Amino acid sequence: MAGGVGGGGSKPVCYETSRRSDTCEAAGDVRVVGSSQSIYVDGLEREWKTKPYCRKHDAFALSHVKEWTLKPLPSVAADEGDSGGGAVAPQCTTNSSATAFVLSTGGFTGNPFHDYTDVLIPAFITAHRFAGEVQFLVSSYKSWWMNKYIQIFQQMSRYDVVDIDADAEVRCYRSAVVGPTFHKELGVDPSKTPSGDSVLDFRKLLRGAFGLDRATATPSGDRWDIRRRPRLLIISRRPSRGRAFMNERAMADMASSLGFDVRVGEPDAATDTSKFARLVNSCDVMVGVHGAGLTNMIFLPAGAVLVQVVPYGRLEWLARNTFADPSGAMELHYLEYAVQLDETTLSEQYPADHQVLRDPMAIHKQGWEALKTTYLDKQNVRPHLGRLKNTFLQALKLLPHSRDTMN
């Protein structure tokens, strides 16, 4: 019969799990026909439709997500002859005792922030309670995307991931979940998970997936020394993409003079996820301009410091929602460096009295696209080294054993 996974059936088959996500659950005789995005459920009284991606408020994102339909299972089997012209039940070609979990990698996937906040963390929230007895049936499957994150899925499931849209099987299960559950940006609300799981549990899973050695930023001995200086990673961006550091080399030299072992990394679509995760995990401080690259903070060890450089344009709210707020639950220290008017390339593009420089909120009122184009896509930054030095010194003091740092 139709009902929630684990029985009961006291709530609707499909229900809102957050302002961003709908989830459907069914148990009993469940048959998945991926080629038609259909799931047949014995005892279901009516059809339910859903798009299994955590951005239900965003029509543009959902235009890249296929719709799935949960349907009543016909009572006549395909091998029972004439059904009188009515529907017949698809016959199982494979059977599994695992729970089927349908989710989509359409939407905004390919952007690391959306990979984690829209797909990977919601998948963890939903799948973790099954302790590996869950099979991912991925709609809008992209092989290049799955190759980047397959180790994460392998940590959550004992079964192969299925490209379900291209699947010719009729897959039969005892239970199914359609659509992951969203809690908050880059986060997990322990009060909403069956066993109190948090984002720390997800970070532990990532350490297992990518072979990350450091759970905490504590030095191996009782102090930093010349053999193991605190490591600072600068997240680099090309100027053509916007939000690039125009004085990156000088920033690196300054940080090095403070005692940091400085690394520079520029993650992009071709970046080896495992290799970059290990680089980030080896670092104690990560600094970058607001953007998807800061999502890599999820690999930093606990006690490390995230420094978010906020572009000019009254973008503090955006910085807070995306990276500042999630960092605390990850047990990271957070510092913010707000770019001033004389540190932005916008001051070279517009006259001093232009609205873009004088009244950013007027641009905000024009909508997200105007804000994004002006302050995110077309702005690069050149932080004052003196101001930034104070921020880096603050980061140094926040690190474990900071009082012993580089005497």
TrEMBL record:
It is found in: Golgi apparatus membrane. The keyword Glycosyltransferase applies. GO terms for cellular component: Golgi membrane. It holds the Pfam family Glyco_transf_61. This is Glycosyltransferase 61 catalytic domain-containing protein. Residues 195-307 form the Glycosyltransferase 61 catalytic domain. Keywords: Glycoprotein, Glycosyltransferase, Golgi apparatus, Transferase. It comes from Zizania palustris (Northern wild rice). Transmembrane segments: none annotated. InterPro entries: Glyco_transf_61_cat, Glycosyltransferase_61. GO terms for molecular function: pentosyltransferase activity. It is a single-pass type II membrane protein. Pathway: Glycan metabolism.
